[in-house]
Design brief:
This protein is an alpha+beta fold. The chain is built from 6 helices and 5 strands. The strands form 2 sheets. The protein has a 3-stranded antiparallel β-sheet, with no helix packed on it. Strands 4-5 form a two-stranded antiparallel sheet.
């Protein structure tokens, strides 16, 4: 029941968000891509390079890329169709593929077919792991499940490349 002029000085102000996105320089993009392509560690994520190329070439959000299915990739017409997006307007939008991204997706599809056999339209482009984690055991990839996160691989890649940015900045 007090006047606003009395309450105002006592109200805590909201903090300003300092983690604002930024555009990467060409050198930073190149460092990320080279580090991902040249990673020879046994624990590397073989799909991270393709993931980065899609993010950098299309501007898609990480959640849109993670849930990408092969039915949404039209190599013949050179178009990628976004599935469920953050907004209704973003869902179903078509993004043209440049020649470089087509070549990367072709290489990814060849690796994928070698791993799982003939590619099915309802399979995820970035497969997740099957089963429950057990100490000391590696779980097999399952093309019917999407990967849940690339956070660990992204953090490691970013540190190794010496680039400070958010995944969303791609």
């Amino acid at each position: 029941g007090q006047k606003w002029s009395v309450i105002w000085p006592k109200i805590r102000k909201l903090e300003e968000n300092q983690e604002v996105g930024r555009a990467l320089s060409p050198a930073e993009e190149q460092a990320l891509l080279q580090t991902a392509a040249n990673d020879q560690s046994p624990n590397r994520n073989r799909m991270l390079y393709t993931f980065l190329r899609i993010a950098l070439s299309t501007g898609m959000r990480s959640g849109e890329i993670i849930t990408l299915r092969w039915s949404q990739v039209d190599m013949a017409d050179g178009v990628l169709t976004v599935g469920k997006a953050k907004t209704a307007k973003g869902t179903g939008r078509q993004i043209p593929l440049n020649d470089d991204l087509k070549a990367v997706l072709d290489m990814h599809a060849a690796w994928y077919a070698k791993q799982f056999g003939p590619i099915q339209p309802d399979w995820y482009v970035f497969p997740g792991r099957a089963g429950k984690p057990k100490a000391g055991e590696s779980r097999p990839l399952d093309p019917k499940r999407p990967t849940t996160t690339i956070k660990t691989a992204w953090t490691s890649l970013r540190d190794n490349a010496g680039v400070q940015c958010r995944l969303h900045d791609l």
